Amino acid sequence: MKAFRVAVDGQHLGDLGVDDFNNASVIVGFARGPDAEPTDYRLHIGGLSESDENGISWHYRWACPDIREGSRIEIEIVDSENCVAPTRRYRSDHTVQDSPFTEEEERTLRYRDYLQLKKEFEA
């Protein structure tokens, strides 16, 4: 199957692909924080499946390591039979809005928010 072979700072993430893809992408980005400096670096690997027998398409994504300025991201498009399953496959349409994150990822995100708030209010 078609897949992305991805490595971040020398760490091989595997061959990332699914049989029923409609589209797939690797997105590298960064956002500007309130102090006008780029502070939030992101790597996203995922996509959307073809519609299943019920007409439902599923989003899918893989967990990605944190990246920073200077991170080296290597992407190769391959045909592979040894793909790593997505970290999360979820439905997000007019009827159902599943979370794109696993429970562990949601906890990590809440903890990051907590640390930001703690920093703000204890300053």
Question: What can you see in these coordinates?
Answer:
The chain has one domain (2-121). Strands 6-1-2-7 form a four-stranded mixed β-sheet, with no helix packed on it. It has a four-stranded antiparallel β-sheet with strand order 3-4-5-8, with no helix packed on it. A hairpin with a 5-residue loop joins strand 3 and strand 4 (38-49). The mean pLDDT is 91. The longest helix is centred in the last third of the chain and has 19 residues, at 103-121. 15% of the residues lie in helices and 43% in strands. It is α+β, with helices and mostly antiparallel strands and 123 residues long. The protein has one helix at residues 103-121, and strands at 2-8, 11-16, 21-32, 38-49, 59-62, 73-79, 83-84, 88-90. The termini are far apart.
Layout of strands and helices, then pairs:
Layout: E1 2-8, E2 11-16, E3 21-32, E4 38-49, E5 59-62, E6 73-79, E7 83-84, E8 88-90, H1 103-121
Parallel strand pairs: 2-7
Antiparallel strand pairs: 1-2, 1-6, 3-4, 4-5, 5-8
